[in-house]
Amino acid sequence: MSLVALALAIWAAGWAMNVRLATGAHAETAAVRLAVPLIFGVTVVLVWECVVRGLQVPLVILPTPSMIAARFATSLPILWADFVQTFVKGALSGYAIGCGAALLAAVAVDRSDFLRRGLLPVGNFIAALPIVGTAPILVMWFGFDWHSKAAVVVVMVFFPMLINAVAGLRETTAMQRDLMRTYAAGYWQGFFKLRLPAAMPFIFNGLKISTTLALIGAIVAEFFGSPTVGMGFRISTSVGQLALDMVWAEILVAALAGSLFYGAVALIERGVTFWHPSQRK
Question: Whole-prediction pTM value?
Answer without folding.
Answer: 0.83
